[in-house]
Backbone:
């Protein structure tokens, strides 16, 4: 065991002196997670000022305005009532409003006809979030309105007395905006952006441990150090285990530091600590297995660099480190199931979104360990040849 | 003063410290070493002399347990070379400097010493001793990458001595070394032998083997073609002479034509000279000058010198050592 520790300690000392390894394993993931959170994190605090031009002043228009002023929408929108469509356009253009909604004249009256007037929105290409918000509000309102119109028409067709139609119309005028629909349109999950991108970036950069551990192996071999070590009373197994241990420690430290920093400084939610640790350890094992595979497949440092880069970026793309898997095409979602990082991300997000414990991540952890076992055994079989002098 | 590792209490140690018998190693269809047998007692420097690609490095890798022979056996102090016990007794100094350039001299030595099971005070003591031996104590905290070539060579050698081996295996330790460092290395090798260490030394520099080796084995194309002390090997030449022709022009052509001269037993080119071994060398000079004319080569000097290992190599292989 002592030679294993000696080799691992020497490797870690070299990694600590290699600034690129520190940057890739610690600084880069923190920086990128913070940047991504800053770039996309606004979606959690969406708020827009909507310039609403009420050219109708009818009952339905009044209902829409009342809905927009409802307390439930208060945290999302501020309504600025303007006199005309041109005023709404001017407000958006000048920046005093983020988007606009125009209720055309005769809108309320047209609701009861066969061809009702359409609500329109005024948006800026520079503020797609506000545009989406205005669009969502109007679509939700229109959908509800159409539902009510259908109800009235159905009642009449079924032979309801005229006196009831009046009551139905009154009910229709008391329209409420379905706030929940609006919220679903704006946010895909109840998961903060940083809580997704912190583990996503941590895993992505931990995969680079594969690159610098495998490359350092070939550099050492070219320097004659592997051969020199094997002339000592140790075996190739000690060398392999020492390298694996250093890769494990480096990857685990990287994940732990990023987890603590993003959790405390950026508010990332990694879920139950024990569950997160289990997912992390399984992920780190798969990194070690991938390192063995790259060492087994490559012949030179340059080949190791190329192979590991391909492995890292393919896994990151398929596993959802750059895009949310939940909004990815079905094929990509299926492919993510073949990646350890995809399962790890699922584990972390499940922990954060469900508030569950270790039981929540049993399947992801087993899936990652299965990947590590298959890749690790293949890697060790291939890597034996690389270690021999 | 290097103290050697504790004697092994195996009865076999009473014999040679290193015993190789019938070593054969092939790489694919290429025979790297075939049927090499040699033995080495404590306190002796054995030079394995041969040109590049002759099989020297393959032989010592088998001695160090790094390469398994296809046939034959290697025993160090009665133990198989691949065993941990044998490896503890062997100090290996590879041909190329094998040290971590991003670690300091002290860190490199500590790491390599630890692999041989040294720890604590003993490790500190051995590292200090190695640094002192190589005159690098003052620069022990500097990274090896900043060292000169000579300093790296010295440290490379010291790293093989940390565990006080009983058999030191040096693979061409003076290649690319400046004359001063080379002299220092050769002196130390003799010193180690004087302290009872057995030294297996590979080189393609005849003068090194001539100077420090108690016995020399001449290896060519994987075969050990001759073995013995310098005196014994030179005696194989009998009354033969070694002739050095300094010349300008196509020396290979001159060597080829010289081989056709009756009485010439071997000819090769090295160090801008054509080296020949011949019986009655002085009588052959007119024929050799005629060969130079035919090769359109201008002869600048002719020396008939005392036979040495170079001549032995020429005599045994027909070619110069450093061709």
Residues:
């Amino acid at each position: 065991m002592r030679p294993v520790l000696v080799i691992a300690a020497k490797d870690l000392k070299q990694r600590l002196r290699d600034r690129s390894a520190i940057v890739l394993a610690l600084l880069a993931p923190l920086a990128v997670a913070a940047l991504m959170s800053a770039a996309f994190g606004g979606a959690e605090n969406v708020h827009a000022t909507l310039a609403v031009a009420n050219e109708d002043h009818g009952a339905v228009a009044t209902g829409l305005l009342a809905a927009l002023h409802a307390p439930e929408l208060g945290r999302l929108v501020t309504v600025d009532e303007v006199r005309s469509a041109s005023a709404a356009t001017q407000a958006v253009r000048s920046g005093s409003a983020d988007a606009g909604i125009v209720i055309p004249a005769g809108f309320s009256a047209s609701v009861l006809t066969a061809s009702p007037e359409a609500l329109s929105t005024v948006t800026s290409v520079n503020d797609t979030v506000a545009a989406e918000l205005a669009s969502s509000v109007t679509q939700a309102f229109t959908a509800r309105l159409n539902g009510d119109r259908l109800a009235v028409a159905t009642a009449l067709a079924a032979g309801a007395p005229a006196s009831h139609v009046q009551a139905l119309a009154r009910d229709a005028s008391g329209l409420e905006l379905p706030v929940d629909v609006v919220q679903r349109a704006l946010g895909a999950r109840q998961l903060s952006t940083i809580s997704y991108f912190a583990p996503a970036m941590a895993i992505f950069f931990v995969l680079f441990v594969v690159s610098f551990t495998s490359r350092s192996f070939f550099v050492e071999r070219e320097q004659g150090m592997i051969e020199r070590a094997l002339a000592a009373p140790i075996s190739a197994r000690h060398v392999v285990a020492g390298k694996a241990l250093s890769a494990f420690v480096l990857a685990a430290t990287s994940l732990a530091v990023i987890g603590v920093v993003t959790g405390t400084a950026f508010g990332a939610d990694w879920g139950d600590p024990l569950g997160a640790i289990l997912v992390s350890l399984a992920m780190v094992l798969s990194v070690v297995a991938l390192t063995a595979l790259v060492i087994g497949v490559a012949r030179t440092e340059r080949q190791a660099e190329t192979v590991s880069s391909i492995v890292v970026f393919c896994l990151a793309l398929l596993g959802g480190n750059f895009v949310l898997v939940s909004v990815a095409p079905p094929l990509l979602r299926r492919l993510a199931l073949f990646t350890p990082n995809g399962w790890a991300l699922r584990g972390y997000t499940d922990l954060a979104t469900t508030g569950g414990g270790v039981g929540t991540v049993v399947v992801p952890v087993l899936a990652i360990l299965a990947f590590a076992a298959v890749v690790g055994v293949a890697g060790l079989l291939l890597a034996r040849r690389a270690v021999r002098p | 003063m290097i103290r050697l590792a504790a004697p092994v209490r195996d009865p076999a140690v009473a014999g040679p410290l290193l015993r190789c018998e019938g070593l054969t190693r092939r790489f694919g269809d290429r025979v790297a070493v075939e049927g090499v047998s040699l033995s080495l007692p404590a306190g002796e420097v054995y030079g394995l002399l041969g040109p590049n690609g002759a099989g020297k490095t393959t032989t010592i890798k088998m001695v160090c347990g790094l390469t398994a022979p296809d046939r034959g056996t290697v025993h160090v102090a009665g133990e198989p070379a691949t065993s941990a016990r044998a490896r503890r007794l062997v100090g290996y100094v590879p041909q190329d400097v094998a040290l971590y350039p991003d670690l300091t001299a002290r860190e490199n030595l500590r790491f390599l010493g630890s692999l041989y099971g040294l720890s604590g005070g003993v490790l500190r003591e051995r590292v200090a001793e190695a640094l002192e031996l190589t005159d690098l104590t003052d620069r022990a905290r500097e990274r090896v990458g900043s060292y000169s070539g000579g300093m790296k060579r010295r440290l490379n050698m010291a790293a093989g001595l940390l565990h006080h081996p009983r058999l030191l295996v040096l693979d061409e330790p003076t290649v690319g070394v400046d004359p001063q460092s080379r002299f220092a290395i050769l002196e130390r090798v003799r010193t180690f032998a004087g302290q009872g260490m057995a030294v297996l030394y590979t080189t393609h520099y005849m003068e090194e083997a001539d100077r420090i080796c108690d016995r020399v084995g001449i290896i060519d194309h994987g075969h050990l073609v001759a073995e013995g002390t310098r005196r014994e090997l030179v005696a194989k030449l009998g009354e033969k002479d070694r002739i050095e022709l300094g010349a300008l022009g196509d020396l290979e052509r001159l060597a080829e034509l010289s081989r056709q001269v009756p009485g010439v037993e071997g000819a090769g080119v090295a160090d801008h000279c054509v080296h020949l071994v011949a019986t009655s060398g002085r009588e052959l000079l007119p024929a050799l000058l005629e060969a130079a004319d035919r090769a359109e080569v201008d002869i600048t000097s002719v020396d008939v010198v005392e036979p040495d290992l170079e001549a032995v190599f020429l005599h045994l292989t027909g070619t110069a050592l450093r061709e």
